[in-house]
């Protein structure tokens, strides 16, 4: 494979994986009645509108139609992509939940 083609394939794979990470985050938020955009902008207040987040929000389903997404899953995926600030905000939301 040509090095340029390989580079393009790696970039494309990363974008797909990043999209999946954002979808997991957005659906987790929906499942817990949290506004994904508001949570995202608490983590990254200086960022402009996130087009990928907007696109992935269109892919989410109502929480009644969604499978459960474990807290550890969303935290792990965010950390894998270096979104530590967003993972921190997710942790704060988890800690706000009523204790059983």
From TrEMBL:
Name of protein: YxiS
Natural source organism: Fictibacillus fluitans
């Amino acid at each position: 494979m040509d090095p340029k083609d390989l580079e393009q394939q790696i970039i494309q794979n990363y974008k797909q994986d990043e999209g999946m990470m954002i979808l997991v985050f957005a659906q987790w938020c929906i499942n817990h009645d949290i506004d994904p955009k508001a949570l995202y902008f608490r983590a990254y207040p200086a960022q402009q509108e996130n087009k990928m987040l907007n696109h992935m929000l269109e892919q989410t389903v109502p929480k009644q139609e969604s499978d459960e997404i474990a807290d550890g899953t969303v935290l792990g995926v965010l950390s894998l992509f270096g979104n530590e600030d967003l993972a921190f905000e997710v942790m704060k939301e988890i800690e706000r939940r009523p204790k059983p």
